[in-house]
Design brief:
Strand content: 5-15%
Helix content: 25-40%
Structural class: alpha+beta
Order of helices and strands: EEHEEHHH
Distance between the termini: 17 Å
Radius of gyration: 16 Å
Shape: globular
Number of strands: 4
Length: 115
């Protein structure tokens, strides 16, 4: 639940703190691109963005930082969220509905606290 805090004459909503699973994110770095299979560098892409409550769980993380700029294309919506979920489902060998359900449940029910 968001809390309110006073800033001057305005009431501001504070964002909940999120648990960042740095170990998981690091373990998913430098994996083959989910879209093309080429080598990647750097952090994986969050299918549901962090700013929208996207959790740090394998079902929501997609390695896309390849030489074909698939990470940037995902941010430009040239690769849709539905397509990313389908690719992730194929990679994990699970139905797309299961992947989406896991991510949306985690997004809804994770308790975000400071590290």
């Amino acid at each position: 639940m968001e809390k309110q805090q006073r800033k001057g004459d305005k009431m501001m909503l504070t964002k909940p703190h999120r648990i960042v699973d740095k170990k998981l994110i690091k373990s998913m770095s430098n994996q083959p691109c989910l879209k093309c299979g080429k080598p990647t560098i750097g952090w994986p892409h969050h299918i549901i963005p962090v700013g929208a409550g996207g959790p740090d769980i394998p079902e929501n993380l997609a390695p896309l930082n390849c030489s074909d700029a698939h990470h940037q294309k995902a941010h430009e919506n040239k690769i849709t969220r539905d397509e990313l979920f389908a690719l992730k489902a194929d990679e994990m060998g699970k139905p797309i509905e299961v992947i989406e359900d896991v991510v949306h449940r985690a997004r809804r029910f994770y308790e975000y606290e400071p590290n």
